[in-house]
Amino acid sequence: MATRIPRIATREQLLKHAARRVPINPTARRLHTTTVPRRNPPTPTPRSNPQTPSKPPPPKTARVAPSSLLLTSGLLASLFVFSQTHDDDDHDDDTSSRPSLSPSPTTTSTSSRDPSLPTYRLSFIRHNHGPTSPEPWVTLGDKVYNITDWIPAHPGGDVILRAAGGSVEPYWNIFSIHHSPHVKEILEGYLVGYVSPSDLGPDGKPPPASIEDPFVNDPIRDKRLITHTLKPRNAEPPNGELDKSFLTGNEMFYVRHHMWVPDDAGEGEEELVVELPGGEERRYTLGELKRRFKTERVTATLQCSGNRRNDMTRHAGKTNGLQWGVGAISNAVWEGVRLGDVLRDAGLEVEKGGEDQRKKMHAWFVGREAYSASIPLAKAVEGTGDVLLAWGMNGEVLPRDHGFPLRVVVPGNVAARSVKWLSKIVIADEEATSQWQRRDYKSFGPNEGASPDWDRAPSIQEMPVTSAITGVWVGECVKKVPWMMGGGDNNNNNNNNKITSVGSGQRTIDMAATPQKVGFTAKPTTPTATPCPKTTPDKEPIALQGYAYSGGGRKITRVDVSLDGGATWDQAELVDDCSNPATPCYGSKSWAWTRWRYNGTLPVLSLPPASFPSTATAPLPPALAKVGQDCEDGFGRSVGLMGRLPNHKKQCTTLIVKATDESYNTQPESHKGIYNVRGNLATAWHRVKICPECTKGNGGKGGLVWNTGETYGCGFRKEAEEVREGMRAASESTGNGK
Amino acid sequence: MATRIPRIATREQLLKHAARRVPINPTARRLHTTTVPRRNPPTPTPRSNPQTPSKPPPPKTARVAPSSLLLTSGLLASLFVFSQTHDDDDHDDDTSSRPSLSPSPTTTSTSSRDPSLPTYRLSFIRHNHGPTSPEPWVTLGDKVYNITDWIPAHPGGDVILRAAGGSVEPYWNIFSIHHSPHVKEILEGYLVGYVSPSDLGPDGKPPPASIEDPFVNDPIRDKRLITHTLKPRNAEPPNGELDKSFLTGNEMFYVRHHMWVPDDAGEGEEELVVELPGGEERRYTLGELKRRFKTERVTATLQCSGNRRNDMTRHAGKTNGLQWGVGAISNAVWEGVRLGDVLRDAGLEVEKGGEDQRKKMHAWFVGREAYSASIPLAKAVEGTGDVLLAWGMNGEVLPRDHGFPLRVVVPGNVAARSVKWLSKIVIADEEATSQWQRRDYKSFGPNEGASPDWDRAPSIQEMPVTSAITGVWVGECVKKVPWMMGGGDNNNNNNNNKITSVGSGQRTIDMAATPQKVGFTAKPTTPTATPCPKTTPDKEPIALQGYAYSGGGRKITRVDVSLDGGATWDQAELVDDCSNPATPCYGSKSWAWTRWRYNGTLPVLSLPPASFPSTATAPLPPALAKVGQDCEDGFGRSVGLMGRLPNHKKQCTTLIVKATDESYNTQPESHKGIYNVRGNLATAWHRVKICPECTKGNGGKGGLVWNTGETYGCGFRKEAEEVREGMRAASESTGNGK
What we know:
2 copies of one chain form a homodimer.
Chain A: H1 11-21, H2 81-84, H3 92-95, E1 119-120, H4 122-128, E2 137-140, E3 143-146, H5 169-174, H6 181-188, E4 191-195, E5 226-229, E6 234-236, H7 239-242, E7 255-256, E8 271-275, E9 281-285, H8 286-292, E10 295-303, H9 309-316, E11 329-338, H10 339-345, H11 355-360, E12 362-367, E13 372-376, H12 377-381, E14 388-393, E15 396-397, E16 407-409, E17 422-428, H13 430-438, H14 453-456, E18 466-474, E19 499-501, E20 507-509, E21 541-549, E22 556-562, E23 570-571, E24 573-574, E25 594-601, H15 622-627, E26 653-661, E27 686-698, E28 701-708, H16 717-734
Parallel strand pairs in A: 1-4, 8-17
Antiparallel strand pairs in A: 2-3, 3-4, 5-6, 6-7, 8-9, 10-11, 11-14, 12-13, 12-17, 14-15, 14-16, 18-21, 19-20, 21-25, 22-23, 22-26, 24-25, 26-27, 27-28
């Protein structure tokens, strides 16, 4: 066996295999308004590696050591359409590290040029060999390639036409899989000439300004969003906006893109193609969908599998991918038609076969250009699954950033399944699905004959339970908490920023005001104290708020809060937003997040003395010895001892939230226990460390302020600053700061 | 508000309230073959506390401090029919502490007797005032009571008739709620005379032999079961038998009873009553059910909410209830008819109203005598819910211990919902369900006006993900592991105790042989070594096996094993029992447990030197310093330091298993994080500490043996011994050892 098939195959082999096996994505040919004619026959690269295997090897991401594999198995990282079908992740690591469009290091010098080949002006290429021409060309550095014959074999489908008439560089920077010698080698087979010296800069390459920016037509986003990458745009709302209201405003809904936002789609212009297992196709215009099927609404939270990844990085180690805070999650009312209705209309016999069969079959959603994902057919068609083909969001037309004109919404599943800019749905029978899942890699890997890891851990569909703290108020700040203004048990029917009774003893909260968050803006709570107090006050009030969410439509049944690092717990109040007439929850199950809030009393903490040594070896102050168990991410372990470690400078306490859903599953205690190198499903208890400090300057008097720790308090001041700094830097390097 | 309603109400008030509100359980009147006529009007106790509140107070179990309340809310402990409906628990604490039938301390002396009342012989009472007489009497100590007028008001229904003609004492010992002054007070109102002095012993009480044993007709159980209580019987299979086969043998299936096993039911003799929301009733004999509806099979695991409770006790603190090991779980094929089919036939319009409505309505299952529980109607009627009314178990007639002649099987839910000896099903509309759930306690509790804790945490229905290690083999013992005999990758089609390929690269394991478990019988692995080795061998092999299970039909997608206390992890092999033609898995979802096995290599550990000090302060041996992080329940914390603590005597390592289900929920890391005083849902990572030791006696040579720790290794030697000792003691105290 081992001699027949090489263990390590080249990228090129993978590409060639993909070219043979995967049909061209037909929707991509409608990228620009006219259709590019298909070339026949497909011509693979002329300089291929002769050692062509019958089966490709596993991708490298699946070769991570088992001890770090938790939850990462089945996560194949390629961005090609064919391999994304069962990719659970949001593909962060393919995009996050390359936000800028700086040219790739493919520098050539004209001296190495083949003198037998002609040169072309960039304007000539742009006008005569663009996406709609019968002979599309691309450039890379100073070289010109005729990719006409390569297009049918291109694993990413006709997306390649997006680059036709210009440079492929910006696209290779997005689809980083191209940064490989083998890809270059393929391209070299299509060399037809060179860029005219008149179009080259002093470095022998076309100047950056001559390279078209694929993101030039991206929509303008709300400035409050915290941006992780600009191109493609990935951004989350700041904590203060995240769960201020039950429904996230469309402009504040987190943005997760792998590329540019399609700009040439018009309502009714595109057709949705439904392909049945037999290969029959049925086409629908958006107008038809709206007219012929019953319009439904579903209130559903979407959450990226990478939400809270930054938490995992901080508490368990480096992870690859966008370092989301707690905001890669948002909630909206979606409007559209039931996927099941459309599939039945298209001729799919969904009742045929049992539930088992429906779990093995998949509905595969192909987005415009290079993204697709699938869900089990059982979820796609079951009445209580509530999967929508949606065109509306919170009562408005679906914004371009969220899939205009049509997207899938798969409530309760990882948001990667809710494919935006939907162009095609393929229903795959068991065999095809099985092929996608196994990708013929069955008998490969270090343990030949055994199932490789990524075959033993199915892809993520439903999301596990999670929660986060998004607001903290301490001391005098508690007076500014909107839902505290109504008082503890003083129910009333005033909807203005107060606790409101909505029947059944439940209360709803309007958090319209944007309060001061302790993590963002520390306010002296005892401003007239002088000198600095030695400890925090007895019975210092604290208020917390946040969200909790579980996949699969499982309702949040309780949220527990600890103010002392996990030593003691109390139950938080769940906000019954679904009972609020203003925000009814549409759908069969609990697809929306649950907001919670809590108020309590902090333990007494010692303030650090002015001369508190940075390498403290002295006995701990009594108050700290009592509470200090949580000066790291404690839970009663590491008792007191951490306080003696050199890097421990402050007396702090850790606020924790954890949620339980109706299946009584709850969150893991630590990210160490669920660590995986991709940083997916970072669902451990959410911890925010807060520390008292004495500040002077208030007319010479000392005041007590509270801060989140230097590396704790995900989503709080320190993190927000870091993220903004990164955004600014990226913006400067590309000259695009919008 | 506080003045209107007393904060602490008496048990009697509760009883009185219940008497007014709850209908008598009609099925209980068929306890013996004739029916007892209903007496009218109901007469409440004549000596009631005058402070009768309009609403009863919360029961004490709900008053636990919030910090210890996790997962216990909603767990009301009364054993009365009316209050069990939403009781998630298996009611352990009501029975476990009273396995014997020793008389309660109600000693009276004849000198305190009312001389105006007559005396009766016990034989007279037995023959003339038994369950079928128009005037049932009971005795308590030397007193005789005519309970005729109390029966309609008795919160537990006509179960009280079980005691008629004899002493109530054995029943009060089972239903421990009666051990309260207020209950006694109620009974005193019905005093009609005294037991004749001829029937009293020297202590002024009837001799124990004169008191009928309600358990006299209990079935005889398999001697291999580990018995927690004899009367009622609660027992679990030992680890060696638990998951030896995919389907647990009927005789080894764990037994969870609240009382005696009904002995007077015959097939066809009893009728199942279905009561619809309007009050209409429909009756079915077992024969009718079998003839008129399609017979279905479902392969489903049942698990007690108290499974692994002993783990929580050991790792997090004292819990109330039966101290189950890892064996309060078993798996079987159930045969019967779909509950949904029967409900539709009975006239229930299940499609009426949405999913939301069906979640709010409940199907309430009433067992014969004093047990009932409910499930949301959505689960009861959905096609993929697979709820059965079952008469068959693993191809045999349902055994008496498991509900003969008819029981409910609710796959994926806590086993407390799978009511045995089913007599009635009540479909309750939203209002009635709501009443059960809220029990009118809405505005009570420490925070008047706020929802009390038990109203904020709904009852357990679906079970969260859990797993356990049930077999450990080390060193030479690994040669005896059945599924290791086939070799690592040597797939073959021989089904005899070897790894067997069943297609798709999956393997199934026949564990027919009962191997030596390291926890039970330590075997020298290096029997000829002399003197004692200083460390365990390099690359010492280890093999583990066990089970994993998640509720709600969620498939187990991966099981991870750590051999070093959580520092590193590896994936276990999942046994694909469902693909084995001998054990197909019936049903729409993954209702059965998943067995797993793992083989690996232990880290090198130091053996304790002969003079190893019990209060070691010396530096740790290097090998221990490297591995010793897990000498407690570590996970890399408490690093090394535990080795210096006085009670640390051995160099050990902790084996851990944790499972992940298809919703990607996983198990909590520690029981401290989910501690609740009832010890429910003890689903933390399962840990088994193993320790090397040098033993002599093998012809004077030293041999390396492995032991589970003294308090670790739930279900292993130490625990088995403790449990057997408890069983023996209980048996001796009652004279009933069967």
